[in-house]
Design goal:
This protein has 4 helices and no strands. By secondary structure, it is mainly α.
Length: 86
């Protein structure tokens, strides 16, 4: 999961144009400057492209109310279900 965290960190930094952005399992949208509904869509698209996964509509809606740890758990399940890393 450390590799996924590191790659997810890079995706966040790219989407939010902040090379110093640090995320952890407890990070929420409210704690990241610029993480609004448009940025959320951009983040999801970037994650889907980077990790070669797809999120369902209900998963997308739940993401904004949860934290990065929840997002990472979902992401790892999706990666595992397709048989390994991107």
């Amino acid at each position: 999961m450390d590799g996924v965290h590191s790659e997810l960190q890079d995706v966040f930094r790219s989407v939010f144009s902040d090379d110093h952005l640090e995320i952890n399992d407890q990070t929420t949208a409210a704690e990241v400057d610029g993480w609004d509904s448009i940025a959320h869509i951009n983040l999801v698209i970037a994650i889907e492209k980077h990790f070669n996964v797809r999120f369902a509509a209900n998963e997308l809606a739940a993401m904004q109310k949860q934290n990065v740890g929840n997002l990472m758990e979902l992401l790892v399940r999706k990666i595992d279900s397709r048989g390994g890393p991107a």
